[in-house]
Specification:
This protein is 72% helix and 12% strand. The protein contains five helices and three strands; from the N terminus they run H-H-H-H-E-E-E-H. The chain has a three-stranded antiparallel sheet. The longest helix is centred in the middle third of the chain and has 67 residues. The protein is rod-shaped, with a radius of gyration of 37 Å.
Amino acid sequence: MQTLSTFWRSLGFSTRLTTSFVGLMLFGNVVLTSLLYQQYEQAQVDATLNKLHAQSENNATAFTSWLTARQDEIRYLASTTAAQQLDLEQLDRLMLSLSELHRYYDSIYIVSPDGIGVAGVTQEGNRIVLLDETQVRT
């Protein structure tokens, strides 16, 4: 440490002034660059979070719309005369048509007011299969 102090004092005033000035400029540049990088990084994080938030909102809206459409289809099926009168032949045709039309449903079951399954369809691979009475009740 003593040697450095001696060396510093041995330099002329203009050299010490220039060295101090250059040192302060470099220190200022390092501080400024660090602050700019932190701001840039925070802006990138904020932009990514905003993008993900918007994307999740869009996905939630799309899913809600899709789910509402599927619920409307099942409500329509439940509102038909065949469903209200538990006409199993017509219900089977309606469920098959609905399943083949969209392929969204892996299974559709019709349950009586007593809570007992009376009809159903399921997807097995690429085929849609009507369930018999024993399969529906289990």
